[in-house]
Amino acid sequence: MRPSSNPHSPGALDLEAATWTATYRLQLSARFRFDDVEALAAYLTALGISHVYLSPILSAMPGSNHGYDGIDPTRISDELGGEEAYGRMSDAFRRLGIGQIVDIVPNHLAASSLNPWWSDVLQHGRDSRFVNYFDIRWQDSEPMHLPVLGSDVPTALANGKLRVEATEDGPVLQYFDSSYPLAPGSVCDDIHELNRDPTKLTALLDRQHYRLVPWREAESRIDYRRFFNIDGLVGVRVEDPAVFDAMHGRTLKLVADGLVQGLRVDHIDGLRQPHSYQRRLREAAPDARIVVEKILEAGETLPDAWLIDGTTGYEFLSVVNGLFVNPDAEAPFADLYRELTGEGRDYVQVLEECKRLAVGALFRGDLSHLAAMFEALQPAGRWSRDDVEETLREVMVALPVYRTYFDPHHDESSKNDRELMLKALELARSRSHVEHSIFEALGSLLLEPGGQEETAFVLAFQQYTGPAMAKGGEDTAFYRYNRLVTLNEVGGNPGHWSSSVDAFHALCARNAERWPQTMLTISTHDAKRGADLRMRIAALSEMPDVWAATVRSWMARHESLREHGPDGNDAYLLYQTLVGAWPIEAERVREYMLKAVREAKRHTTWTEPDEVYEGALCRYVDQVLADEGFASECAQFSRRLADIANRSSVAQTLLLLTAPGVPDLYQGSELWDLSLVDPDNRRPVDFALRLRLLEEAAALTASEVMARMDEGLPKLWLIMMTLNLRRERPGLFEGTYTPLHAEGAGSDHLVAFLRNERLIAIAPRLTAGDDSSLVDAILTLPTGQWRDLYSGTLWDCGQHTAAVLLRDFPVALLIKDEA
After folding, report:
1. Is 329 helix (H, G, I), strand (E, B) or coil?
2. Cis bond before residue 62 (omega within 30° of 0)
3. Strands across the sheet containing 230-235
4. Distance between CA atoms of 500 and 613, rounded to whole angstroms?
5. DSSP letters along 485-510, please?
6. For residue 808, which of 204, 463, 598, 791 is within the disulfide window of CB 3.0 to 4.6 Å?
7. 3-state DSSP call for residue 779?
């Protein structure tokens, strides 16, 4: 091993050459800092983790519980412990041979005066040396609009909420807890006198490079690109090489120093030129593992030209999740959903409705900006602004993927991109009443951009189709279409009912051939539900008649409680949530349901909450949970689900740990993970419990572990056993991937594959907790003898029933006996 270039850790292990066994995602915050991470080093080593995977580590807004609202990308966060604590943590991990992958956020920074670059732009306007760092749409000589006020300016001045205050750095404009720098020389009066005179204050405001406006006007008056529709996150022009260097310099220094071996790129689809970006990042970090957060829709693949190692694994999560949904239950669930809620549309229709809402409401200002760019490239007055906006909106709605990837510097747009855009244009034109000539002009621009202005329009258009899909889909439609909510997961498609074994094999074969180091996951910080909660809800599909009768009785039982809300759709979501997460505290249920109905935007929203509906919803939750008869029935039903789901959870965990790629574990998910969407899934993790159980599990047999199923010990033990094998014999998990197809009546209940001719993974599915279905599934083991890692049983080659192979543990991992 060569010495490290890290001055903190002379003679440390060569982590650049270390095997990537698995990553372990940790959510950092003021409540969980570098010192807390350092304390986990021995635990993660014993679990078999090779690389700790950290949420953003650079300076973010005070109190941030995620780090995606960065304020200074040149500094490690003091709130997390600063440089010294980061160095101590890194030393501890290096001594144990654990590397790091860090989450980087190139798309945006916080639009806050605490961000020195943004503050300088507010103070100096177009003369700021950082003015080109941000994606600002300056309007002629107009100032930039900041949608931050709760009222209009005269009201804020009259109420004394908007005033000037003296600071060490000079006078600032203060509004509640937020301050805004003032242009040099613009304060000409005594501050006390100024604050007593609304006329002078108004004149002062008019001398600034920005205008404070009501936050409710954001969608029509926003002058800068945001992360989705979050006004407090301003888009960064990372396509500019100087801005790229400024944004990445500190992180790339960590890579160069050998402290960081991998980078996870947040929201790459938000960037102006993802092709150029990933090439520049690869040139700056040639030896780092680079994965990107990218949601791939059905039939979509990563561009082959990208010089990265893969994605963060949403597509793997989606396919694995669908393996455990009974394909025969789709029709009964559709009928039940229609009966209970009145929703008879398919998901595509719901999604299109929600995307149309997102583009027209959440991104109204952005749509207007795109329309103006388009009009500037056409003969003056040829079409009305309304028709142009409708055309742009309908094409965005019709596009079935997050975005396309035309890049003038690296024109590697795939044939598939062109076909998708052609189909979107045709579909949008077929259902629009505007002149077809607009679609023809738009198509010419999008498919054959010419000069600089045309290219600028195409790049801007591509940046906004992703937010339209994200806000319309995962942040709206996923909360409206509640047919079976295990399918409503980031990277998934609630309209696609289940996954076949062949689909799983196809994904794994593609990863083995093209993306062998891609990240695999079944739980993330952005997941709508924990992996094991999803398995419980998926188990409903294995008992459709029982579930239908049960939920009908519960809905009828509580019908009188729903006079003012919730409606049938929200109530049905509640019952699915309860059977999946039971037992669960009322406060967690209320918080989740409030978030769900606000995201759905049918009865209430985040910006305009309906207190009557939300109050009725919370009362309904409390009354349902206070119903002792229901609570008893729900507990019994949930126990029945858990008996099925726990085995499915062990099975999906085996697939995660053995399929081609690098598995990622989300913090705490090594035990049963019944978390709901954030912030629920970012609650503190009891690592002391996990360490104690891991120490106990190390001395137990498969049968002893199975006796402690309720504690989640089989999952923890499986992870420890498998990851330590990966660390000791990494070659078993590399190389070829060969599907193994079972025979017999139960063949579809088995997922099995061969890795590198020396390792066989065997996982059951859709057995409803009854191993009898595996008696009729026959698997032929290749030549040689095979020892099961979990049971220790030695198997000869030839035919074996799945029931026999899995008699001691829910899954099997067979290693070829080299002796």
Report:
1. helix
2. no
3. 108-110, 230-235, 226-227
4. 40
5. GGG--TT--TTS----HHHHHHHHHH
6. 791
7. strand
Task: Read off the tokens for 777.
Answer: 């599934």
| Cross-strand pairs, 801 | 778
Rounded to an integer, what distance in angstroms lies between the CA atom of residue 811 and that of residue 771? 12
pLDDT tens-digit series, residues 752-786: 999 999 999 999 999 997 778 899 999 999 999 99
Residues 6+ apart with CB under 8 A from 551: 336, 340, 572, 575
Q: Among the residues of 69-114, which ranges form H helices?
A: 82-95
Q: How far apart are the first and last CA of the chain?
A: 30
**Amino acid (1-letter code) at residue 720:** M
Distances (CA, A) of 294 to 58, 271, 272, 274, 692: 22, 12, 15, 11, 36
Q: Which amino acid is at 18?
A: A
Q: What is the pLDDT of residue 412?
A: 63
Answer whether 72's CB lies under 8 Å from 59's CB: yes
595 CB-near residues (< 8 Å, 6+ apart)? 677
pLDDT of amino acid 17? 59
| DSSP per residue, 646-693 | HHHHHHHHHHHHHSSSEEEEETTTTS----BSTTGGGSPP-HHHHHHH
Which backbone phi and psi does 50 adopt, to 5 degrees? -100, -25
Q: Which two tokens stand for residue 170?
A: 């000079």
In sign, the C-alpha dihedral spanning 542, 546, 550, 552 is: positive
Beta-sheet pairing, 99-104 with 262-265: parallel
* pLDDT score for 407: 86
> Where does residue 661 fall: left (phi above 0), alpha (psi -120 to 50 degrees), or beta otherwise?
left
Residues of the chain where predicted confidence (pLDDT) is lower than 70: 1-17, 411-413, 819
The C-alpha atoms of residue 27 and residue 55 are separated, in whole angstroms, by 5
Please name which of 181, 253, 216 lies closest in space to residue 365, comparing C-alpha atoms.
216
- Find out whether 278 and 307 touch, Cβ atoms under 8 Å: yes
CB atoms within 10 A of CB 793: 17
Closest to 665 (Cα-Cα) out of 29, 42, 52, 100: 52
Predicted confidence at residue 466, as pLDDT, reads: 96
| CA-based nearest residue to 680, from 531, 527, 782, 536 | 527
Structure-block tokens of residue 775: 């008696």
> From CA 280, how far away is CA 173, in angstroms rounded?
39
Torsion, Cα 322 323 328 334, to 10 degrees, reads -10
Tell me the DSSP string of 218-244. HHHH--B-EETTEEEEEEB-TTSHHHH
Nearest to 468 by CA among 295, 654, 685, 724: 295
Alpha-carbon distance values, 608 to 37, 599, 618 (Å): 39, 12, 17
